[in-house]
Design brief:
The protein has helices spanning 24-31, 45-65, 92-97, 109-122, 156-166, 182-194, 211-220, and strands spanning 80-84, 101-106, 127-130, 141-147, 167-178, 223-234, 238-242, 248-255. It has a single domain (13-255), classed as Rossmann fold (3-Layer(aba) Sandwich), CATH 3.40.50. The protein starts with 23 loop residues before the first helix and ends with a strand. The chain has an eight-stranded mixed β-sheet. It is α/β, with parallel strands linked by helices.
Length: 256
């Protein structure tokens, strides 16, 4: 730990057992983006536009799940959270600002280094770890988030089972992922990558899951989907929450 900032230094890849479901090629791809992750005009610009939409959905889900949250300045105070596939911390830091004791996991050591440097600079505390969710043992969290990750894993069922294991009784899980539709192929793979809005090679359309497929995996892991909302785009609104699930969607999930 860095005594002056309260942050934990990134751990090397040898510190954690690396036998999870993240494809090493995927980790390397996102690790190469680490230096620009916090640049809203860099290669991760799309994530910066997507993040406010996700945060609005997450805050609404928190307020509905914990009755006391809606009137609290820090609605996650006293709660633990884990952001799985945290990248350089675009979502992780807002969870800390909402009061949670946050752990951030990522399979790319470069992302953990960038996340640790950024959180130190802004004076927050996050327990960042270079690890796969499948390697965690004996820890549970009140809030589990994993945004735009499941489409990059080698075994979605095993990944979901691992998320379920770390969800505390009475906890809340929030997921997002692209849908496997003609629209997502055109917008996310063909247009966004070709126009430089998303780094080339980010998406493999064949690995996208439909809401029905993801629901089936969650149910098999003993989880229940409470809500599904789309993230849509149009020229006037930009990215926004919608009933249209064709491009991307978010899910609110609980145990049982």
């Amino acid at each position: 730990m860095n005594a002056s900032t309260g942050t934990i230094a990134p751990r090397s890849g040898n510190d954690e057992a690396r036998n999870g479901t993240i494809d090493p090629k995927e980790a390397a791809h996102f690790g190469r983006l680490a230096a620009e992750w916090w640049d809203p005009r860099g290669e991760s610009a799309m994530l910066h536009r997507l993040n406010p939409v996700r945060l609005a959905y997450i805050r609404n889900a928190i307020d509905h799940h914990w009755a006391e949250a809606g009137t609290a300045r820090k609605p996650l105070a006293g709660k633990t959270a884990i952001d799985v596939g945290c990248g350089a911390g675009l979502l992780t830091e807002p969870l800390a600002r909402l009061g949670a004791q946050v752990t951030g996991l990522d399979a790319a050591a470069e992302n953990i280094a960038a996340a640790s440097a950024h959180v130190a600079a802004v004076g927050l505390y996050v327990d960042y770890r270079h690890a796969d969710i499948e390697t965690l043992a004996g820890e549970t969290f009140d809030l589990v988030t994993s945004m735009e990750v499941i489409e990059h894993v080698t075994d979605p069922a095993t990944f979901i089972a691992a998320l379920a294991r770390v969800l505390a009784p009475g906890g809340l899980m929030l997921l997002s992922t692209p849908n496997r539709t003609t629209m997502s192929r055109i917008m996310l793979v063909e247009a966004a990558e070709r126009l430089g809005q998303v780094p080339r090679g980010t998406h493999d359309w064949d690995k996208f899951l439909t809401p029905e497929e993801l629901t089936g995996l969650l149910n098999a892991a003993g989880l229940t989907v409470l809500d599904t909302r789309g993230i849509a785009w149009d020229p006037l609104k930009g990215l926004h929450l919608s009933d249209n699930l064709a491009l991307n969607y978010l899910m609110t999930v609980v145990r049982g």
